[in-house]
Structures are given as structure tokens and as C-alpha cells.
């Protein structure tokens, strides 16, 4: 049954200095009453400009934020095949499992803050922010044993013993990064709801540059290997989280009015919406995790996992770029165009893009074989995140969760198992 979104408090007066009414939100004339030229000028172009004002910075920030995982893999990949596979498993299975759950729990804030900002009740954003931080902090504590027992869990899932041990070591060292998400997700949703996306982008860009420097310093100059990669991963996570929190408390006076005990009221209503969001997004994100686990059971698991990582990670990171909400038809069209561009880039660079991940010739040849499937997937995945974003904005998370179960787990994974193991197609 659909989870009911908690209503905004009716006894609170809207913010007097910030009406939060978006510009140019009047209805357009029906398409049938306009010429094609007028439609392009009055509807398509105006919606495109509004879309990119918000979506452009968000997409760039997501590329930078998710680029920390890619850079970590790139630097570790040149240490050796085993190191790359271990970090790939850690990032794609254990860390992705927790990331997906926390992202989903934090997405309830996206629904509530968007509604509060649209209703002019900007003062409620700070209360929702504190409530979300508290819930996510408790969730991090609950998820902590997964990090602590990562190595035995991976062995139970059938991963190679040496690979599981090294992945477990990286995961243990990444525990500080887990708790940074309790601040990172709520502050990000808080700022996005107010269209303050520029600061998120700048923070993400600076963090990505520093992450690259720290990886080089710790892995190669200090010769810390995987330990250095984990330290850089932790530092970058906390840098982004604390920078966003500092901006919220220092420059968002309308939405942030200090700490309040009101944040601990109506906790259960907030949790139920958070859980619905978590289920919806987790079912999507954990699908990639399940593919990695299945890949680890193939022959020559180390090469297979590297092969899978260089391909599907490109899919996952590009999908993040589409997750913005705007006018649905225009947004879907633009996302489809981006998907086609990404498909073209993958096909043109199919023999080269694996070079940045690894020096292994076997890995480079294997990854190029995946390029055609990867390119098609880019187009297919370009529209779905937009629809998910609309669902989050409307509070329809439970319905989308049922759809994800059917598409990913009833159809997708069984088909992948049959093609990979029974039809002997392997990673392809």
C-alpha cells in the first residue's frame, strides 16, 4: 500500500521573506493551438533553459562526486589486477549496498523539502534536515556490522578468499566515509530543494581535485597502497559533507534557524517515507551489486570482475547524471539525447577507455568486447532515472518499488544468470 507523505504543518506560517514561487510557472497554450515554430520558441526552448539552469550544475556535481569512486579505481588499478578487483568488489557490493540504503533514506528529505519550499514554509527545511541527519546516523550504526564483517560476508557470497580478504581490509578502512553520508545526503537535498545547486557543484569539483591529489600522495608517494586509497576516500567524503553543512549553517538563514527539538517530533512518519524511498532506490542500485556478485562466480573471477567494473561502472555513473527533476517531456527528451551521445562516445572509444582503469592487456581486450552492449545500455538507461525522479518528487516511492522488483529481480537477474551460466556467455 502506498506510503502516505507526512503533511506540512498547517499551524506554521510561511516564510515572510521568501515565497519560494518558481519563476515563469504559468500554463502554456495547448500544443494544438500553436505552430511548431511557436512551440519550439515558447515551450521547448524556455523549458530547456530552465532545465539546464538546475540540471546542469546538479549533473556536473554528480559526475564529480561519483568521480571519487572512479578515480579510486583508476589509481588502485595500476597497483595490480587483484587490488583493482578487491576495491571493485568493496565499492560495488558492500559500499554500494549501504550507499543505496542511505541514499534512499535521505530521499524522503527530497520529497518533504521540495513540498515545504514550494509552499513557502522554508523554515521547515532546517527541521527536516536535522530529522534526516538523526535518522541516517542511526541507520549508519545499524549498517556498521556489514562493513566490519565484509570479508567473511564476501566469502559466503562465493568470492575468492584472497580477494575477499583484501576487499574486507579496504571496507574496514572506509568506515569513516560511511558516517559522512549521514550529513552529506541531507545537506545535499536541503540545498537542492532551494535551487542552491551551484555551491554543491563547486564543493564537488574542489573535492574531486583534492581526491586525485590525495590518491597520488598516499598511494604512490607514501606507498600506502590500498590503505592510502581508503584514507583518501574517507577524507574526500568528509570534506564534501562538512563543506555542505558549513554552507547550510552559515549562508542559509531562511532555511536554517539553528538546532531544534522539533526535529525529534513525528520521527516515525518520516521513517516510513524514508523506508519507502530506500526500498525504491535500493532495488535499483542493488541490482548492479547483484551483477558483481554473480560475476565473481565466473571462471577467472579477478579478470571477470575487472571487466565488469570498467563497463557497468560507466553505466552507473552516467545514470546519476540524469537524476534531476524538471518538465517531464523536455527532461526525457534531453536525457535520451545525452544517452545517444554517451553511446557514441563508448563506441568510438571502445578500444581505449579501459586504459585508464588498468595496465592489463587481457583486461583491456576483454572490456572492448563489452562496448556494444554497454553502448546500447546507455540509451536504455537514459530515461528511467528521470521517471524515478518524478516519482520521488510526487511521493510515489512504494509504487516504483514494486515495478523495480518485477523488472530487476523477477526478470533481469534470472535472465542474467541463464545467459551467463547456462548459455556460457560469461560477463557479456
TrEMBL record:
<dbReference type="InterPro" id="IPR002528">
    <property type="entry name" value="MATE_fam"/>
</dbReference>
<dbReference type="GO" id="GO:1990961">
    <property type="term" value="P:xenobiotic detoxification by transmembrane export across the plasma membrane"/>
</dbReference>
<feature type="transmembrane region" description="Helical">
    <location>
        <begin position="54"/>
        <end position="76"/>
    </location>
</feature>
<comment type="similarity">
    <text>Belongs to the multi antimicrobial extrusion (MATE) (TC 2.A.66.1) family.</text>
</comment>
<dbReference type="Pfam" id="PF01554">
    <property type="entry name" value="MatE"/>
</dbReference>
<dbReference type="GO" id="GO:0016020">
    <property type="term" value="C:membrane"/>
</dbReference>
<keyword id="KW-1133">Transmembrane helix</keyword>
<feature type="transmembrane region" description="Helical">
    <location>
        <begin position="197"/>
        <end position="219"/>
    </location>
</feature>
<protein>
    <submittedName>
        <fullName>PROTEIN DETOXIFICATION</fullName>
    </submittedName>
</protein>
<feature type="transmembrane region" description="Helical">
    <location>
        <begin position="225"/>
        <end position="247"/>
    </location>
</feature>
<dbReference type="GO" id="GO:0042910">
    <property type="term" value="F:xenobiotic transmembrane transporter activity"/>
</dbReference>
<feature type="transmembrane region" description="Helical">
    <location>
        <begin position="82"/>
        <end position="103"/>
    </location>
</feature>
<feature type="transmembrane region" description="Helical">
    <location>
        <begin position="133"/>
        <end position="154"/>
    </location>
</feature>
<feature type="transmembrane region" description="Helical">
    <location>
        <begin position="399"/>
        <end position="421"/>
    </location>
</feature>
<feature type="transmembrane region" description="Helical">
    <location>
        <begin position="166"/>
        <end position="185"/>
    </location>
</feature>
<feature type="transmembrane region" description="Helical">
    <location>
        <begin position="370"/>
        <end position="393"/>
    </location>
</feature>
<keyword id="KW-0472">Membrane</keyword>
<keyword id="KW-0812">Transmembrane</keyword>
<dbReference type="GO" id="GO:0015297">
    <property type="term" value="F:antiporter activity"/>
</dbReference>
<feature type="transmembrane region" description="Helical">
    <location>
        <begin position="267"/>
        <end position="289"/>
    </location>
</feature>
<dbReference type="InterPro" id="IPR045069">
    <property type="entry name" value="MATE_euk"/>
</dbReference>
<feature type="transmembrane region" description="Helical">
    <location>
        <begin position="332"/>
        <end position="349"/>
    </location>
</feature>
